[in-house]
Amino acid sequence: MDDVALKPKLLRLLLREYIPDEKHPFRNPSELLYVVFSIKTHKLLSEWSPQSTDQKLIVEWKSAVDYWVNRLLTLASSDMPDKCWAGICLLGVTCQECSSERFLASYSVWFSQLLSHIQPPADSHFVKAASCASISDLLIRLSGFPNTKKDGTSQATKLIQPVLKLLDEDSSDVFWQEALCLLCTIMNFFPFSVNRHHDSVEAAITIKIMSGKCSASVLKKLGNALCLLPKLKGDEDSWSLMMQKILLSINTQLNDAFQGLEEEARSKETMRILLPPGKEPLQPLGGQAVSQEISDVGMRKPEQLLVSRLSTLMYCCCTMLTNSYPVQVPVPVRAVVSLAGRVLMVDGSFSQASYPSMSTMKQELIYSELPLLQLHSLEMLFAIVKGLHSQLSSHVADVIRLLTEYFGRCRLPMLRIKVYSILKVLLLSMGVGVAIHLSEEVVTNAFMDLESFGDARKGTRFGVHANASVETLPQSRQRKRKQASMTESLQEQPDRDGLEVAMPQNPAELSVKVAALEALEALLTVGGSLRSGSWRANVDYLLITVATNACKGGWAKEEKSIFLCDKPTPLWADFQLAALRALLASLLSPGRVRPPYLSLGLELFRRGMQETGSRLAEYCRHALLAVEVLIHPRALPLGDFSSTIDNYEGLSGKVPENVTFQTRTFGKGIVEPESDDDLYKNWLENDDEMEEVPVTESERNTNYTAETSAAVSGPSQVKLPDESEPGGIGIWCHCENRRR
Q1: Which helix (H) or strand (E) holds 568?
Q2: How many other CB atoms are there within 10 angstroms of residue 368's CB atom?
Q3: Does residue 259 contact residue 235 with C-beta atoms inside 8 Å?
Q4: How many CA within 13 A on the CB side of residue 129?
Q5: Rounded CA gap, 421 and 169, in Å?
């Protein structure tokens, strides 16, 4: 609605019908949602109009907005909590939506009104929470005006002590979350206002984290607030000091948690890395007084607090490693890897004889929460790998050693998924050097996780193939005949409603398979061309079989998934897409032979492209374009051949005129250009059926060429052989003889 004449009328209608006043009660809080929607949709508070607008309409609109603001200030001053809450909430919306001129003229009055509700005498908690949210909106809008930075810092300074007192109160999670959001807003937009209160803020946040009274969502916001403290100064020392405090606090909590569950030497080694001999000990996180208070609380219920404390501190570590920072800082990679290793290496096998005093209840509690702690440790490793990329090269051996040792014992789906994701990032960021060391680990575990998608007709289990060598696979002619029959059966097979290969009912199991396919895709992308022996042929066979079986029952419908832990549950369509992505990597990754399952892959991509409007169809269309060079190798530009001729001329002068090249012939004469559909069938023919035609030379080189002549290979009728072919060697030697 752009008619300026209607906007003041609609605004007055909202005030009359939905906004309470002194005489009328507040009917339904849910009606405020409609009011906010109308305000934002129609921009009823913007007071913007074209220059040609009648001045009378502009005055009328300004009068309506004045009436709106006065009503809200009256409600915010009400003694009735519901009316006060409504006025405060709508005042926050007004801070966002009003014109710049009105905001600059009124924000000081609005700030004073809102500040009074978070200071003693205390109002109800939901009024305080609404006040914190509206003040956050006001400060965010105020930060957008460069000329108000100084005044904004002055106003934000007034909020620090009241907000810290709010965090010290016993209240609901919603109240604490709004107070923390306000504190984070101040630190983000007006950091200078917190500098004088840095130690107080750190102590308040630390006490709240260690208290054990907060939910997971509040602990996450506390962690975010703690990670913002180094940005107040923005220098290298502030970041390093906070990171060291967090790591030392994690190590202290691990000492209490794993007493009797790990070797003592491991904890001592980690402490030496965190605090080398001769280095002066740091103040604990939050200060010495806070440390003593935390210790007293922990003595009352140590087992219940360990996991929540460790989880939050590890989250802080991950956040500091992945978030941006104004200056470059040194990352303590060894310390992070050592702490993660302490958690990952605990598996219950260590004897407790040296610590008989450890209670059975504590031991059971630690073991029950150990998967969660190991997940957070893997996230720390993931943050290191993601944050440093190729700069991790000096420490990558320690990370690989830790992951390979842990992966063999890891069985829970959420942990295997995280390990796969770390391996994937390692492969893509570090390149082929890491692929050499990780290929065996990735392939072995991927075969184990994907073995349920083996060839159901023959009862094949991919776990058997994982240790097979290339020599155990069928020879070239047998493989080609097998491919032809598999292609025909795939083309003749209609889509069926039910899948022949049982779809995993557990979403976690499906997620593991998707993660395994993504890791294989990364391995083929980076290290597919490695002359590594057996794993490439086995992986190619695995991927074509998994993709074929995943798509046997037709293409999955892309429906909305169920959300668990704020992450979408993988659908069958996601698994099909992951299988096709890995298959395309298998086809495109360079190898010692041409792709052995190109025909089957093309058929899958063509079928998938028919599912118009889906992600699968879009990707299959992309895949067909990507493999175009494999389908039509003779369609490559001829510039390469001319450059090859130029190279030969540059090395040996001019090619002798008496050197002739004959076309390659087959048993039935010269081959006519094949159609696109017949090209792959010709690839399936055995090379032994080709007729060898010698290359003729001049008489003075007859004896030499008799030893080196060979059949010219290649699809084109006339070509210069390269050095890798017998003909190419003969030409090179002949040219050298002529130069001599």
Answers
A1: strand 567-568
A2: 10
A3: no
A4: 14
A5: 41
Neighbours of 485 (CB within 10 A): 9
Q: Structural domain boundaries of the chain?
A: 230-409, 421-631, 635-678+685-739
Q: What CA dihedral angle connects 110, 113, 115 and 116, to 10 degrees?
A: 180
Sign of CA dihedral 305, 308, 312, 315: positive
Nearest partner of 195 among 168, 229, 165, judged by Cα:
229
Q: How do residues 106-153 score in pLDDT, each as one tens digit?
A: 999 999 999 999 987 766 888 999 999 999 999 999 999 999 999 999
- What are 680's two structure tokens? 């792959």
What single letter denotes the amino acid at residue 579? A
| Amino acid of residue 78 | S
Task: Quote the pLDDT of residue 212.
Answer: 82
Residues comprising the chain, all counted: 740
Please answer whether residues 284 and 248 qualify as being in contact, where contact means their C-beta atoms are separated by less than 8 angstroms. Answer: yes
Tell me whether the omega of the peptide bond preceding residue 121 falls within 30 degrees of 0, making it cis. yes
The residues facing 564 across adjacent strands are 567
Long-range contacts of 396-401 (CB under 8 A, 24+ apart): 396/426, 396/430, 396/434, 398/334, 398/337, 399/337, 399/426, 400/426, 400/434, 400/437, 400/438
Cβ pair 400, 426 in contact under 8 A = yes
> Are the C-beta atoms of residues 430 and 393 closer than 8 Å to each other?
yes
Element (H, E) at 273: helix 264-274
Helices 173-189 and 160-168: crossing angle in degrees, nearest 10, is: 150
> How is residue 331 annotated by DSSP?
-
**Cα–Cα dist 467/628, whole Å:** 33
Dist. CA 413–CA 421, nearest whole Å? 12
Name the stretches of the chain with pLDDT < 50: 455-502, 560-566, 636, 638-677, 679-680, 683-684, 686-740
Give the list of residues 6+ apart from residue 136 with CB closer than 8 angstroms, or none: 92, 178, 181, 182, 185
Q: In this structure, what token pair is assigned to residue 725?
A: 């072919």
Helix, strand, or coil here: 669?
Answer: strand
Distant-in-sequence, close-in-space partners of 466: CB < 8 Å, separation ≥ 6: 443, 444, 447, 448, 538
Alpha-carbon distance of 53 to 74, in angstroms, equals: 31
Cα–Cα distance measured from residue 373 to residue 323, given in angstroms and rounded to the nearest whole number: 22
What's this model's pTM, rounded to 2 decimal places? 0.78
